[in-house]
């Protein structure tokens, strides 16, 4: 029975890895198709020194941001996503 469980766990891990790789390729091809410049793309970034300055979320967690430049007709627009983790789940607000 343990062997069967190990096989299922391995199958699950491999499946998740394949899904992650496939979604990364889809995102990459979408950005290339839309002409999105990677120089202006900022992954989710947690503000590390926010705690020492008192700039924290209401639950005391450090704030985070994500920045992505617009494309097409919205090339001069930006999306700034402010997010925090709340009880294990991420909450977001678009500015």
UniProtKB/TrEMBL annotation:
Keywords: Cell wall, Cell wall biogenesis/degradation, Hydrolase, Secreted, Signal. Its main location: secreted. Belongs to the pectinacetylesterase family. It comes from Nicotiana tabacum (Common tobacco). InterPro entries: PAE/NOTUM. It is found in: Secreted, Cell wall. PANTHER family: NOTUM-RELATED (PTHR21562), PECTIN ACETYLESTERASE (PTHR21562:SF78). GO terms for molecular function: hydrolase activity. Pfam families: PAE (PF03283). Residues 1-24 form the signal peptide. It comes from the Eukaryota. This is Pectin acetylesterase. Hydrolyzes acetyl esters in homogalacturonan regions of pectin. In type I primary cell wall, galacturonic acid residues of pectin can be acetylated at the O-2 and O-3 positions. Decreasing the degree of acetylation of pectin gels in vitro alters their physical properties. Its EC number is 3.1.1.-. GO terms for biological process: cell wall organization.
């Amino acid at each position: 029975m343990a062997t069967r469980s190990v096989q299922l766990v391995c199958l699950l891990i491999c499946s998740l890895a394949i899904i992650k790789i496939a979604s990364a390729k889809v995102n990459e091809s979408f950005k290339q198709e839309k002409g999105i410049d990677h120089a202006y793309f900022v992954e989710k970034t947690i503000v590390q020194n926010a705690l020492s300055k008192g700039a924290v979320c209401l639950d005391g967690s450090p704030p985070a941001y994500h920045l992505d430049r617009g494309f097409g007709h919205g090339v001069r627009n930006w999306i700034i996503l402010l997010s925090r983790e709340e009880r294990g789940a991420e909450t977001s607000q678009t500015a």
